[in-house]
Structures are given as C-alpha cells and as structure tokens.
Specification:
The protein has 425 residues and is mainly β. It has 2 domains: 20-176, Jelly Rolls, CATH 2.60.120.260; 191-424, Jelly Rolls, CATH 2.60.120. 8% of the residues lie in helices and 46% in strands. It has 4 helices and 23 strands. Strands 1, 2, 3, 4, 5, 6, 7 and 8 form an 8-stranded antiparallel beta sheet that branches. The chain has an 8-stranded antiparallel beta sheet with strand order 10-9-13-22-15-16-17-18. It is elongated and about 70 Å long. It starts with a helix and ends with a strand.
C-alpha cells in the first residue's frame, strides 16, 4: 500500500478522472431531467448485494464484479442470451446502476439493465442494446432511471462493437434505503445526531478521567455528550480515553467505543461472516493523539466466541503520547496474529489526517479498503486468509492498546474523531 499521505496528494487528480466519466448518456447535461437525475444520485446509497450469478463464464466469475477491483472481470461469450444477475436479498428502491467494462476505452458494450422482484418477470429500465456504453473509459459509467422497487438487477448482454464477448469488471447499484442505518446527517449537537447512532451502543465511562467506572451501554445515548469522553467538535464526534480508566472484565485496555446493534437498536446483533453476503462498515476517521503505549484501535470486527474474539482490529502504532507526524497503519487480531503469526503493518498515515475506510467480511475473508471522498473503493489495503467466524459485530471508536496496568496521568490519553459511520448487511 502506498502511504495515505501520498494517496491524498493524488486523490484530486484521480477524482477528476472519475468524475469526468460519471455521465455516459450522449444527451447534453443542459437537459433539466438529466440535471435532476444527477442531483438525485448524490443523495443515494450504494446497496448491498446478497449474491451474484450468471448463466455462463469463461473462468472469470461473476463475483469479480463486486470485488472493488477494475482489473478483474466476469466474461462470457455470446451476442445473445448471456446475462449476470444481482440479488439484493429483498426488494429495494433502485434508481441508478454503475457499470465498468473490460476494454471499455476501446469498444462499446451492448446491454440492457433489467429489474424486478422475480427473475422470471423483469422489466427493462436502461436499453443500450443498440447504442452501447461510451466506448471511451474503463471506469464506472452511471445509468440513471426512474425509481423502481426490485430485488433483482440483471445485465443482459449482446456482445460488443469488436466481437461477441461480454466482459464486465465492476457493478454498483444505488437507491434509497428503507430501514437499516440511514446516512448520517451533516451536523448535530451530539455524537448521536452527527453519526446517526440509532443502531449502536456506547461502551464507555462515567465519572471523571481520574475516577471512573466502565459502562457497557451509556443510557440516553441520543442526548448524551461529555466534554471529557464523547462530544462534538467542528462536526467530528470526539472519542477520548485516559490511561488507568476502568474497563470491561474481558479486557485490560480502556475504551470509548461504539458497538453495533440490530437496526432498531433494541438488541445485540450477531451476523455470519462465512456466507456470500457481504457485511460492510464505512467510516471517516481521524486519529489525533496516541497514549503512552503509542497504540490505538479505531475499528473492529468482533466475534462472540473466545476462539476468534477480535477477528480484526484496525489500529495504528507510533510513539508514546505522539500528537503529530507519521504512524503505522496496522492490522491486528485473529486474521494476522493467529493466521499470519503476528500483527501486520499495511501502510502509514499522519496523525490528524482524515481517513476514509471500508471494512468488509464475506465468505470468511476480511478486507480493508481505502475509499475516495465519494465513498468509492480505490485501494485494497488488506485481504485476510480464511477466518470462519459466525457471530460477529462491528465496533468503532477509541480502544487503547497495550495499556494494561498503567495508572492515570492527565497527559496520557488517546483521541480519535469520527464524522461518518455506516454499516450495510
């Protein structure tokens, strides 16, 4: 992985390239209907795909279109009757699909986008059988249409302008979500308001930095703010925790950390990481200060059992009480410490630098992605070996590492900031 700092210098150039390919229709954007569609797309959410299948391939399998990698693809030969189908798991409101084509800058792909609640009854919402894709880019191209409720999205393919092959590298499906974890509002007076914490609980502390008690679930979280531990500052939710703070019976390390709940917030959630359903957490995070150990965890997948425990910890490592400069981005937990013999450094970033990550679990494989400012995957930072944990949940916040037995000092604390937090199942 290149350092995040270097990536940020390149991001503006990359973003310009991506944005230039967002509109693929040949009509002018002066058309009011197209302007309205583009503005609507900004408010849409990328929908999770439960499974993907196709009626043929040449060894380049359908799952390659969901791996966030433009260098892999699904391919199938035939100018008629070849298709790839995405199952959203349940009916969702859909109004946009993004597609990227293999050799899309050399030839046009001919296709239709068809949707419905049964694969035996699909309706065409985008017809490019004759006009085809742009033929000018290998990046994702956006196809908007009137909102429709559907469970299945099928790309029916009719070859390309050079031959009869159909080769799709990536697919993203967008719409409005009902239920689950909605996109957080842009600002708020409490962390709950800012981040939209309807389906989270806070494992935190009560009292003062020098004299406190661990609390498994902060009561009245929707109104809770505390100038020591958990508060909003410049549209960021701040998580601070000191050395020597009380903690849970299962850990010697203090924390101020969110734990995922069911969508309605009423119960603990446990989901299976071994199936083809992708479980995702996307979060914008900033690490501002390290404690005396120089280690802070700011994102996790945790399992209910002691065997896996913390399946993965996304954390950083630097110097004691460091407040600026470069630190190591580390992957710890079962996927490295047990499967690879120790924690793994996967990059570097600067304290105080805004980061945007996505942590996923699917088919027993954990992945960490780096996202651009639009929330799209641009770099696969880490891919695990097989880790078949079946009772999982996400965590995010400030979890000090290697701090067991340390006493309180006013200058010995960690600080993490988050201003966006979303989960998708």
């Amino acid at each position: 992985m290149k350092t995040t700092k270097l990536f940020c210098h390149l991001l503006a150039i990359v973003s310009i390239g991506l944005l230039s390919n967002c509109t693929t229709e040949t009509e002018s954007l002066d058309d009011p209907s197209l302007i309205e569609q583009q503005n609507t797309l900004k408010a849409l959410t990328e929908l999770s795909v439960s499974s993907v299948s196709a009626n043929g391939d040449d060894g380049n399998v359908p799952a390659n279109t969901l791996d966030g990698n433009l260098n892999t693809r699904w391919s199938s030969n035939g100018a008629t009757g070849k298709y790839i189908t995405y199952d959203l798991g349940s009916s969702k409101k859909i109004s946009s699909v993004k597609l990227a084509w293999y050799k899309g800058n050399q030839r046009k792909a001919f296709f239709k986008i068809r949707v419905g609640n049964s694969t035996s009854s699909l309706s065409t919402v985008v017809d490019k059988k004759s006009s085809g894709s742009s033929g000018s880019t290998t990046q994702l191209e956006t196809y908007n249409f009137s909102e429709v409720s559907a469970r299945y999205v099928r790309i029916s393919c009719f070859g390309n302008s050079s031959n009869s092959w159909n080769s799709l590298t990536e697919t993203e499906i967008y719409g409005n979500t009902d239920g689950g974890n909605p996109p957080p509002p842009p600002s708020g007076n409490t962390p709950y308001d800012l981040l939209g914490l309807q389906n989270w609980k806070l494992n935190g502390l009560s009292g003062s930095p020098s004299n406190n008690d661990y609390v498994d679930a902060i009561p009245n979280l929707s109104n809770y703010t505390n100038n020591n531990w958990f508060f909003v500052e410049n549209n960021w939710a701040i998580f601070q925790v000191w050395a020597g703070s009380d903690t849970s019976s299962g850990s010697g390390n203090p924390r101020m950390e969110l734990r995922e709940l069911t969508a309605n917030g009423n119960n603990n959630i446990f989901w299976d990481g071994t199936t083809s359903k992708e479980h995702r957490m996307k979060w914008k995070v900033r690490v501002d200060r390290l404690p005396s150990s120089g280690k802070v965890c700011f994102g996790q997948i945790h399992d209910k059992t002691d065997f896996f425990d913390d399946v993965v910890r996304v954390q950083c490592q630097g110097s004691a009480n460091q407040t600026s400069g470069s630190v190591k981005l580390r992957i710890n937990g079962y996927v490295t410490e047990e499967l690879e013999g120790g924690g793994k450094t996967v990059g570097n970033f600067n304290l105080g630098e805004e980061l945007y990550f996505e942590l996923t679990y699917k088919n027993s494989i954990v992945k960490l992605y780096e996202l651009n400012s639009s929330g799209n995957r641009v770099n696969t930072i880490f891919t695990s070996q097989s880790a078949p944990a079946k009772q999982n949940y996400f965590k995010a916040g400030n979890y000090l590492q290697s701090m067991k037995g340390k006493s309180y000092k006013s200058s010995d604390y960690g600080r993490v900031a988050i201003n966006k937090l979303e989960v998708f199942h």
